[in-house]
Amino acid sequence: MLKGRMLGIAITVFLVSLPMLTGCDGVAPGSAQAQRFVGEAEYAVLYDSAVDEFSEEMPGGVVFPADPPAVEDGAQIERSVATAVVHLYWRCSWQRVYLATRDLVQKEEAMRQLERFAETAWAQSYYDDSSGAWSGALESASFGDAGMLRDFYISDCESRTGPLA
């Protein structure tokens, strides 16, 4: 049941993200709505700005990639995607720490940071946890069952921060 729910969430995220990443949204070029979209070069500039302005604590030794994730040539990207990429990389980095370490102090710090995710300004504006999937994953992990958190990592993070060892 959980895997079906996670697959449903992943498909929904993909379908919602597809227009942002491909520009296939039927918006007329030059329109006010088209100003929401940028090309690859401006996307890279927005990513660099988002990294520079990011104020949350990163796990020790973890830095943001120098470049944003690649997009198809000629793709139009919604402006907010660059900031989303930064926040999700941060969340994924802390998930990796939580799932990979045996050190209780590091695990506790990772959980504190993961709990902050939903409180960030970006998540407040763009992340919908009305189903309780994310908060449920954190709660289960706090009681020793990190299975849902691991599922989130596999579906959302492996492509960003690499597979767990």
Automatic annotation (TrEMBL):
Keywords: Signal. PROSITE patterns: PROKAR_LIPOPROTEIN (PS51257). Residues 1-22 form the signal peptide. This is Lipoprotein. It comes from Microbacterium stercoris.
